[in-house]
Amino acid sequence: MTLNTLLDLAIMIFAGMFCGRMAKHLHLPNVTGYLVAGLLIGPSVLGLLSDDFLEATSIISDVALGFIAFSIGNEFKLSYFKRVGVAPIVIACLESLFAVLFVVLGLIISGQSVPFSLVLGAIAAATAPAATIMVIKQYRAKGPVTESLLSVVAIDDATALILFSLAVAIAQTLTNSGAGLGAALLSPLKEIGGAIVVGAILGFIFLIPLRFFKKQGNRLSLIVGFIFAGLGLAKWLGLSNLLLCMAMGAVIANFSPDVGKLMDICDSVTPPIFMLFFVASGADLKLSVLPTVGIIGIIYIILRVVGKIFGASLGGILCKCDKSVRKYLGPCLLPQAGVAIGLSLAAGVAVPEHAPQIRAVILCATLVYELIGPAITKLSLKKAGEISGK
What we know:
Strand content: under 5%
Distance between the termini: 38 Å
Number of helices: 18
Number of strands: 0
Largest sheet: none
Structural class: mainly alpha
Mean pLDDT: 81
Helix content: over 70%
Order of helices and strands: HHHHHHHHHHHHHHHHHH
Shape: globular
């Protein structure tokens, strides 16, 4: 069933609002309701939204991720890192590394080939920040776990790209189809470094008109314009759009005295954008992949969770973090979506004979993690004492 674009968007908003309210009555995060709404009206169930429509409106996802990344970047204040040191970096590296190690070892022990295990296991490092940020915003979570979580999910994008590239390089070497570790690692390092440099430059340019435009409407236009510019440049130059927008937000956070006002402006206009993004994400989830994943999918889904929790806890212990960080940060790192799906497509180059299987496992994992992840994040933050009420 296909309606015109505006009616489809209206259906997405109304379905998201209704399911978001139902989720609230069940004491679940709104984002869970949005994802369920998308799943219900998407191709897998009612078919009110077509695959063609979802592909045509992918710009909504780009814009939403741009705002989310910009918001995360605003948490990268130098004063925060002076206070906590390298703890977020250590935790991000270890939770990513152990998620990969646990999944790879589990797959090898189950009898899978080493190249296949390396490539699929490497995708386990990726964490989706969007759902986590929505839970934090909805419940206004505040405390050491929340602070650490925002930094870790931001750094995670970089660690995931590096670990995946390293695993692919090793897999290609084992199958005699690679160009070596150096060449394979050069591309993601350029992608990460270039994104940070371009994002920082945009951030400093952003500071100039901020001095002259004081009204809320003008500043909203500036925010939208620079985020759009960042997303466009990232696509044009082949850089990470998340890291680029994060870097831009980090510059604003550290060099603009008006950063608080800017984030208030963002928060006043982004709710419908985020709702559309998560409803579209839910519609993209495919129930049909569930029966196809078998033992490989179960290993991936379970051991990734174990690796994330173990690595985050170990990092917290090594850095002598607050007890709540050591205990509750790991379970907040379950959501996995866009970056992982993108890496699953890239994985087909390294082990093309396993491409359909890798794609099915990651799509299934996305379905599971996106539906249960927000609820677990809420529960973890509540147990940490950083969310009040129900």
